[in-house]
Design goal:
With 282 residues, the protein is mainly β. The chain is built from four helices and 21 strands. The strands form four sheets. Strands 2, 3, 13, 14, 15, 18, 19 and 21 form an eight-stranded mixed β-sheet that branches.
Length: 282
């Protein structure tokens, strides 16, 4: 199966007795939810770079530690357009972007250094998870002075981390991304009505299958056959594979969940994701 697909979850009328039973079961599940492991691929705070979502699939998904967003530093550096180098003797990494560098980032070590040799605190120690180094991103971004970031909310109290160049600085990925993210600036569109929630990646045949769950956060019911999604999977060599997915052929209610699948030839390090709705005739 090579074509992307989707599944729309819809609410149906339910007898009151069944609703009561469901409510009791829900309370029971909620009592143990705090002890449950995080959902694999949970996009706890999706990242926006150049106004496009950047998602990390499966075991690469960010998480929080002591209130800090932890990101997989190698895929994140690729997505940001930064250079990451590994110091074998010191078992540490450096991240450089537009003339600014953060050195001596190492698992279990809370301190790092700027390119000028100034010590900085990462506030939370980086850590290895299944061979992937996760790093608290806000102290690193703070040391890369050409970058600014802010938390942004939407109408269902979900948040994103928006990253841009500071004071007119153009980030390196801007040009390449504009050539492969077709929705930016299209007349008559409602941009990114579908908020990403979970992205997993599994072996499928000779390649991999991405499974993306999103929520309609546009604030309105989306008419049938009027939406489209695009996933750009970038592998470890920087090769990008574009998958465009037509939206549902039925109306998508407010806050409805949508499940999207797309097959890709090689494992994605990160996925650029956008969506749109277009008026009839566009």
């Amino acid at each position: 199966m090579n074509q992307p697909g989707f599944l729309l979850q819809r609410l149906r009328r339910t007898p009151y007795s069944i609703l009561a039973v469901c409510a009791i079961m829900l309370l029971s599940l909620m009592s143990s939810a705090a002890k449950a492991e995080p959902v694999m691929g949970n996009q706890i705070k999706p990242i926006l770079i150049h106004n496009s979502y950047v998602l990390f699939p499966g075991k690469l998904a960010p998480y929080t530690k002591s209130g800090k967003l932890m990101v997989p530093i190698r895929p994140f550096s690729m997505a940001l357009g930064a250079q990451m180098t590994y110091n074998v003797p010191a078992k540490s990494i450096s991240v450089s972007l537009l003339g600014q560098t953060v050195n001596h980032i190492r698992a279990g070590q809370i301190s790092a250094e700027t390119g000028e040799g100034k010590a900085i605190s990462l506030e939370v120690a980086p850590e290895l998870r299944e061979g992937v180094l996760f790093v608290p991103i806000s102290p690193v971004l703070g040391a890369l002075k050409s970058v600014r970031w802010e938390n942004m909310g939407n109408n269902i109290n979900r948040y994103t981390l928006s990253i841009q160049g500071r004071m007119g600085v153009t980030l390196p990925q801007t040009g390449p991304w504009l050539s492969i993210t077709p929705f930016t600036g299209v007349s008559g569109e409602n941009y990114n009505p579908f908020y990403p929630v979970v992205l997993t990646q599994d072996l499928s045949g000779k390649g991999y299958r991405l499974n993306l769950s999103v929520i309609n956060t546009s604030g309105f019911d989306i008419p049938k056959a009027s939406s489209e999604l695009v996933l750009v999977a970038v592998d470890s060599q920087g090769q990008a594979i574009v998958r465009r997915v037509p939206g549902p052929s039925v109306q998508t209610p407010k806050a409805a969940a949508l499940s999207v699948t797309a097959d890709i030839p090689s494992a994605a390090q990160y996925v650029i994701y956008n969506s749109r709705t277009v008026s009839k005739g566009q």
